[in-house]
Amino acid sequence: MIYKVAAFYQFAALPDYRELREPLRAFCAGLELKGSVLLAQEGINGTVAGAGEAIDALTQELAHGDMFGGRLNNLELKFSTAETMPFGRLKVRLKKEIVTLGDESADPTRQVGTYVDAAEWNALIEAPDTLVLDTRNAFEVAMGTFEGALDPGIRSFGQFKDFAAEQLDPARHRRIAMFCTGGIRCEKASAHLLARGFAEVYHLKGGVLKYLEEVPEAQSRWRGECFVFDERVALGHGLQECGLRERDKDAARDE
């Protein structure tokens, strides 16, 4: 069986997120899905896997069903496949943030950087006055990144605001193009920089996964593999599993 994997998120006001946990968990369990979903007052973030029709039923319910009442009608959604089930169980958890930065001024529902589609990304990052910024953790950067991108050297995304305060300057870094795995960390990171007075902040819509899905390998500026937080560990162009050796997988999980 080939499993369908859905990665999704949306920043949206969910004041009733605590009450949504059990209905969502029951719905996913009824479809025999496995994976992880985070719910917070600011939105939803998840990656789940299962049969193709089950994944389709979930995404339809999230975007158009009664459970969320149309509040997730702008869901950022990406699909890939796995030859074996990439998750051991189903988890639906309540969190303070769906991606943890720890800066209340960084609110993507109020302001966010300019989205750049995968097809337009190469031209932006090749411009000489653009600082290309990888917002991911150091072990993710080590597995793959865009040519010439700045590695912030952080162990967790919560450290990004400290990196920005110490290393980035609105007067010197007038145009920043940032990227992350699926786009969600850039929502928070770009909102944070805009709140600090940076004028031009761009981010790759849909993240590296969307870029690898849509941009032909011959035209790609990506080098290496893209780490994903499940048993597949890393994906390449076309969102194909990379077939890492077991010792490489173990090393990535240890991080």
From TrEMBL:
Keywords: Oxidoreductase, tRNA processing
Reactions performed catalytically: uridine(34) in tRNA + AH2 + O2 = 5-hydroxyuridine(34) in tRNA + A + H2O
Molecular function (Gene Ontology), one example: oxidoreductase activity, acting on paired donors, with incorporation or reduction of molecular oxygen
Organism domain of life: Bacteria
Enzyme Commission number(s): 1.14.-.-
CDD domains: RHOD_YceA
Keyword Cell division assigned: no
GO biological process, one term: tRNA modification
Ranges for domain Rhodanese: 126-220
Pfam families: Rhodanese, UPF0176_N
Family label: Belongs to the TrhO family.
HAMAP family per record: TrhO
Function: Catalyzes oxygen-dependent 5-hydroxyuridine (ho5U) modification at position 34 in tRNAs.
Protein name stated in the entry: tRNA uridine(34) hydroxylase
Native organism: Bradyrhizobium canariense
Gene, per the UniProt record: trhO
